[in-house]
Amino acid sequence: MDQEYTQRLQKIEEALECWLPTVIDAGLMEEIFPGLKKIPDAGTTDALFTPLKDILSRGGKRWRPLLMALVCESLGAGDAAIPLSPLVELSHNASLIHDDIEDDSDERRGKPSIHKLYGVDTAINAGSFLYFLSLCCIESAQNKERVYRLWAEYMRKLHLGQAMDINWHRNIPLVPAIEEYHTMCGLKTGCLARFAVELGAYTAGVSEKAAGQLGEAAEKLGMGFQILDDVKNLTTGVPGKMRGDDIIEGKKSLPVLLFMHQYPAQREQVFNGFSAAKTHGITAPEAEKLLQTLNDCGVVSEAAEKGQAFIAEARVIFDAPEHDGFSMDGKGGALIAGLIDLIS
């Protein structure tokens, strides 16, 4: 089964490399910038493309475009969705560049963040360009208007979720409700997974209702993965990032919110831990104490259970024998189930 994922992932990488190849030649520049009379100097093109090729080269699971491809394939349309992989994966990486600037994160995928390496101005410009570069692949889509609308809708939702997250960590005393956290997580993280799956479903020609059913499963999947990532951040650490950097950022992740709601008298400990970590790093005594408290009182385990519950809900929807008159073939369903196992 792993080999089947590898074959599909190779096709996805080829689709991404169409727009970010090793060498940016005149033909590609003309395709991206129609009517450009003169190609800018190498320094200009390097400032735009080098940071983007850098972050893409660092890897990433690519599970969103892979899930998109598997959904499309299991609905009988083969690999028709794969050329649209840049819409999903380039947009995701654009959001990572901007997210790291907003959080002033030091690392991404085991290396210095793009803005630390190339400067904030270059990173902002390159990250913004990456969103628009992703749109170039829409020319291969059967229903361009629907794809444009879908992309724009989910990009708006992604940025609304990010605005919620920014507001929460800038306003330290603010304690959002758990339901608000679920909304934020669904927008910031879940909606890109939902976009990928609905894109695959629409490419296969299914109804809006069927695409929505599958999209709901993907949104729950994305939320579950985000919660589990937040749990790992406070325990073992997420590969490619520093353990506990969510505390440095003042991030109100699910374990932190559960703690503040269950132990309101100890909220000041959270605020002190955030402040100390931001000033002195995660090794500050107040930050270390907060990490220890979160792990000892059970909220980290409770959050992990919630993350797994979201993933279980997604499985139920994906495993349904039929979606508004459209059935997913058995092999495709098995591959989707296997992918969830691999990345959860």
Protein model, in words:
The protein has 344 residues and is mostly helical. It has helices spanning 2-17, 26-32, 42-57, 63-77, 85-103, 114-118, 120-134, 144-170, 178-203, 208-234, 245-249, 254-262, 267-280, 285-296, 299-318, 330-343; strands at 107-108, 111-112. The protein has one domain (2-343): Farnesyl Diphosphate Synthase, CATH 1.10.600.10. It is built from 16 helices and two strands. It has a two-stranded antiparallel ribbon with strand order 1-2. A hairpin with a 2-residue loop joins strand 1 (107-108) and strand 2. Helix 5 (85-103) packs antiparallel against helix 7 (120-134), helix 5 (85-103) packs parallel to helix 8 and helix 9 (178-203) packs across helix 10. It is globular. The model has no long low-confidence stretch (mean pLDDT 92).
Beta fraction: under 5%
User: Which strand order does the major sheet show?
Assistant: 1-2
Q: What are the secondary-structure elements, in order, as H or E? A: HHHHHEEHHHHHHHHHHH
At the first level of CATH, what is the class?
Mainly Alpha
Mean pLDDT: 92
Distance between the termini: 17 Å
Going by CATH, the architecture would be Orthogonal Bundle
Q: Strand tally, please?
A: 2
- At CATH level 3, the topology is Farnesyl Diphosphate Synthase
Profile the largest sheet. Answer: 2 strands, antiparallel
CATH H-level superfamily title: Farnesyl Diphosphate Synthase
Low-pLDDT sequence parts: none
Q: Determine the fraction of residues in helical runs and give it as a percent range.
A: over 70%
Helix count equals 16
Rounded to an integer in angstroms, the radius of gyration calculated over CA atoms is 21 Å
Derived from helix and strand composition plus strand pairing, the structural class reads mainly alpha
Oligomer: single chain
The shape is: globular
Count of domains? 1
